[in-house]
From TrEMBL:
Gene: dut
dUTPase-like domain boundaries: 15-147
UniProt pathway: Pyrimidine metabolism; dUMP biosynthesis; dUMP from dCTP (dUTP route): step 2/2
Family according to the record: Belongs to the dUTPase family.
Protein name as annotated: Deoxyuridine 5'-triphosphate nucleotidohydrolase
InterPro entries named among the record's database cross-references: dUTPase (IPR008181), dUTPase-like (IPR029054), dUTPase-like_sf (IPR036157), dUTPase_trimeric (IPR033704)
Names of the cofactor(s): Mg(2+)
Amino acid sequence: MLNYVQIKRLPGNEDVHLPQKMSELASGFDLYAAVEETVTLNPGQRALIPTGFSLAMPAGLEAQIRPRSGLALKHGITCLNTPGTIDADYRGEIKVLLINLGQEPFAIARNERIAQMVFQTVPAVELTIVDELSETVRGSGGFGHTGKN
Ligand SMILES: O=c1ccn([C@H]2C[C@H](O)[C@@H](COP(=O)(O)OP(=O)(O)OP(=O)(O)O)O2)c(=O)[nH]1
Ligand SMILES: [Mg+2]
């Protein structure tokens, strides 16, 4: 089923590319930096990078902001809060929280592809408060409980 998501270019960003799939079956739409001037991230530094657009998606969808593996591999650039969560009722500008985990400064220019946006379905869930939970074999074992191999 095709989901229709509305996208609005924000004023002053007519020159910034809208999110784009770079291949036919790509999961993500690549996101372009809408920085007014080049932003340089020094090693260990983070910055909130604007994209120049907002979205309205139907209830039951979310968008995730994920790193680009090429930037991560070559430059140590990733999304600090990956995957970033875009709520269906958010109407503000989509922003990308990048961090430089590399060893060299990294410059982010306007219209550079900085991250990708993947849409996901979110099941409708209502929490039901109970006194006892159903039993399982695992029980409360976790965090390496099943061993190494
Ligand atoms: O990488 C991101 C993450 C979030 N957002 C926007 C959309 C999202 O709907 C909103 C809130 O994000 P989140 O719930 O992750 O942040 P919060 O710290 O819980 O803020 P809030 O109290 O506003 O929900 O911020 C972005 O633009 N980029
Ligand atoms: Mg929140």
